Amino acid sequence: MPFPELARLPHLTPAEARRWQEQLSPLVVRQDRFGRLRTVAGADIGLSEKTGYAAFILYSFPQLEEIERAWSFGELKFPYVPGLLAFREIPLLLKAFAKLRRRPDLILADAHGWAHPRRAGMACHLGIALDIPTIGCAKSVLIGNYEMPAPARGSASPLLDGKEKIGVALRTRTGVRPVFVSIGHRISLRTAARLVLACCDGYRIPKPQRQADQWVKQLRDDAGKVSSPTVAGELI
Asked: Interhelix angle for 122-130 vs 14-24, to 10°?
């Protein structure tokens, strides 16, 4: 890897982290580079002050039946800096991933990927670190502009940063606000949007991602470390 070892990530300065992202962005593969998809994992992280709770839940695809789940927790060592949250959170996500017995064919992350100021959001970090096709599916916009897609499920409109298409606003349920899909690694934007829809089971958020989000909230709350009703933050 032409960038620092993953173990060093929490110890970089913000300036070093931005330079690291600039080196990572050209490594993102934005075409489909995978075979048959048999499994998909949802990834998410919940935060409680200086502690994070990370989780992966693995499902069969396209049946979306749960196969296994794994989690980790620990101290958040990198400061909160918008656009650099991956450096706080990826060490815990990789720790949780290492506990899975089966390697996923695809990861859905509650995160941005290419739709990031340096084209290097959390979904790109995960995809490149693990060399697994990864999709960023975020609940809100970090960067870019879009027109609201048509109300029907499956409708989409481009998410633009200037003239560059960095993602899509995708309607995953009729009449419900869209999610924002972007490339993480080894997948095209068209395929990413199609697979996000394929992982939705009647709700706005794809099932693997939604269940991972619910589980990290439960883990965080069960640990008794939450003093206020915060929610798990999106990974950007």
From this structure: 60
Q: What is the mean pLDDT of residues 213-224?
A: 90
The CA R_g of the chain, rounded to the nearest whole Å, is: 16
pLDDT at 111: 95
Instruction: Report the C-alpha gap between 44 and 207 in whole angstroms.
Output: 12
Identify whether the C-beta of residue 77 lies closer than 8 Å to the C-beta of residue 68.
no
> With 0-12 CB in 10 A as exposed, 13-18 as middle and 19+ as buried, what is 102?
exposed
Cβ atoms 176, 139 nearer than 8 A = no
Work out the pLDDT band at 231, boundaries 50, 70, 90. Answer: very low
The confidence score (pLDDT) of residue 223 equals 83
**Domain 6-222 CATH assignment equals 3.40.1190.20:** no
- C-alpha to C-alpha distances, 90 to 2, 53, 209, nearest whole angstrom: 18, 11, 16
